[in-house]
Structure formats: structure tokens, C-alpha cells
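Running this now, will post back.
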Amino acid sequence: MTKETTNNQSSQIDIIQQPRVYLVGRQTIEHRDMDKFLADYGMEWNPDSTVAGEILAEAGGRLCYMSFGKGRSTSAEYMENILSSGHGSVTEHAIWNFIITGVSRSFTHELIRHRAGFGYSQLSQRYVNESNTQFVEPDVIANNPKAHDIWTSSIKHSLDAYKELAQVLREEYSEVESRTLRRKLARQAARSVLPNATETKIFVTANARALRHFIELRGNEHAEIEIRKVATEILTIMKSESPNLFADYEVTPIDDGTEIVTTEYPKV
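Update: finished.
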């Protein structure tokens, strides 16, 4: 993160160029009921994976054929067969939770187009004061001094306008009894001048199949660079978190210095 001060102005702009992804939640297994189910139907099953999401996805697949304890002996072998066969529906049973920060509103406009298998909760500009917000600068602008100067000047003017509007509108709503409501009414109108580059934070819940689709689509070389950075960061996390469901992906550098994602098992 860097700070910029434009000419003849005292306030600073906090600039971000790299997103952050935090894995904050994963599933657990109710072993007592899983064991009871197996006992009730005269079966034994001892999956060797320690990842709850992988075990639950495997359980969903094995239930279809009541094949617990039969066939492929390891979880890795079972899930490799699922991926190679394209039977992706069972991977919908594996779910993770993330917090993504250091991303722009442009990014989240793209992210929330992924609906099936995703859930979102995003920072509210109506309630949160954006006077000290940060801004996400695209690499292509940051690497061009002339473009960078144009961008920072525009961001500065937008931020100053937001602060001034918020103050004027708080006075406009001075007769509103609730101070919280006054602030909300002022901020929800003042935010209209903030750019798409405004940093935001978003809580994301997704199943493995939805994550795979996101990683493939947004890790592609034709995807916008910011969302590609997030896709590769999520993949890095998931290759460690759940190798049986994500080990087939590879991250490859390309000529422009960025990275793309490829897999031999697309569209699972």
C-alpha cells in the first residue's frame, strides 16, 4: 500500500494493488451420525482424507451407489475419478468461507455475477464512513507515470467531493432525530461520487464446484487482472486446503508478467 498527496492538497490517498484472501471457515463432520448411518445399513467406511469437505463430497458420491467401503480405496483416487468423469455435482457438498479485502467495487460487481453455489455479504457504504477509504489502482495505470497522475488526481477530487457532500447532507438532514439515520441518509447519497476503484471488503461462501468454475473462468488470460489475482490467490489456498479437489490446477506465468490457471479437468 502506498500513500499519495496531490499538488496543493494536504490529504492523502491510500492506494492498494494486491488483494487479500482469508480462509475463515470450513465444514465439520458429525461423526456420530455418520457412523450410525453406516451401522444401520451394515457398512463400514474409513476415508483417509482429513478434509471435511472432501469427505462429505465423497460421501455424497458413494451414497448414490451405496458403495461405502467398496471400490477405490483412497479419497484421492475417488475424487480423481469424480473429476476425470465430470461428475461435479457431488463437489457441491464441500463448502468454505472467505473474507476478501483490498479489492475494488469494480471487482465485486464482477464477482457477484457468480450466483449458483455462492453467498455474499459486502461492506455497506450506507453505514460505513468512506472518508478514510483506500483505493485500488490497476497495474497498467500504476506502471504508467502519466496515467498514474491522472488517476490519483481524479481519485482525490472524488474523495474530497464525498467528504464535502457528506457534511452538507448531514446539515440537510439536521431535523432527523436519529443521529445514526442522519449519517446513513447523508452517506448513501454522498457515495454516488465515489469511483469504482473504492476499496471494499466482502464475505464469500462457496462450494467446491462453484469455486472451480470461478477459478477456471476468472483465472483465464482473458479475465480482468484484478479478479484473476483473486482467483489465483483462492486457488493457492484451496490447493493446500483441499488437494483432492483442487490439485489438478496449475498456475502458469504468461508474457505480460501475470499468471493464468489451467486444468486437465475443466467444467466439472
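The chain has two domains: 1-26+96-140+196-268, 28-92. More later if anyone needs it.
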